[in-house]
Amino acid sequence: MKGKKSRLLNRGNIAAVLIALIIFIGAYYFVNSQPKTYNINGIIIKSRGALKSSINDVLSKKTIVVEEDLFNSRDTRNSAVGAAAVEVILALKTAGKKVSVYGKIDNGGEYSYTNCNKSNDNCSNPNVIVKTGGENLMKVFDKIVIEGSAEYLLNNRVKFRGILLSAITTPQNVENRTIVEVPINVTPTALANASTSNATNESNESIIKKIGEEILSNSNQTNST
Q1: Are 28 and 65 members of one domain?
Q2: Domain check: are 152 and 171 in the same one?
Q3: pLDDT digits 0-9 by tens, 7-16
Q4: pLDDT tens-place string over residues 90-107
């Protein structure tokens, strides 16, 4: 009788341990599956995981497709989207990526596309989207979305370049890289605004260097936890 009772207690203990383990594993995966929020040089970024690795996952392909969400006619928001897109393109090209860019134009709820021709037929499945509206932030999930007011996109365009470039290159490469020219297959909006992006400006370089240090520090903290 005593042996039977002891066996029942042992089974009860094992069951309790298993239940506790299941709860712990469930809680662990729940916590780690929640979006993470970062603040890199004043840019709020929501990511599915560690920032550097999440950005690299999205930008792992050799050719990256960038979508500019534009508006019909001479909408001033197009300039902001184009200027921010130029910085994204600069980051990707500097990191050695091939870039294909197209514009998705909102014609009052109906959409048309620009820059879709024989040399650039990638007018779907973008890796990066630049657009106005929504929140002032960057989202890194199955794709990278940079969104916000026109003022936000214009004022922070160099920071977007710094964040992407710092995430997909080593700190040494970021510091010693060669700035490349805007590729010829960008949309007319991006080309028109290329002059607004001073890629060699000293203050821009210091911003990007600081962002690189923040991302590196963030990555080291993530790896140590």
Answers
A1: no
A2: yes
A3: 544 666 666 6
A4: 999 888 898 888 888 888
Do residue 140 and residue 200 come from a single domain?
yes
Question: CA 128, 129, 130 angle in degrees (round to 5)?
Answer: 125
Cβ distance 125 to 110 under 8 Å? no
Record the pTM: 0.67
Note whether 179 and 86 are same-domain residues.
yes
Q: 152: closest CA among 70, 36, 42? A: 42
Span 70-91, pLDDT tens digits: 988 788 899 999 999 999 999 9
Same domain, 49 and 11: no
Q: Are residues 24 and 43 in the same domain?
A: no
Cα(186)–Cα(208) distance, integer angstroms? 23
Structural domain range at position 161: 36-224
* Number of domains present in the structure of the chain: 2
In a 10 Å sphere around its CB, with 0-12 CB exposed, 13-18 middle and 19+ buried, how is residue 167 labelled?
buried
Neighbours of 188 (CB within 10 A): 13
Alpha-carbon gap, residue 95 to 177, rounded angstroms? 8
Helix ranges (DSSP H) in 59-201: 77-94, 150-155, 157-168, 171-176, 188-192
Rounded distance, CA 34 to CA 175, Å?
Answer: 33
| Interatomic CA distance for residues 13 and 28, integer angstroms | 22
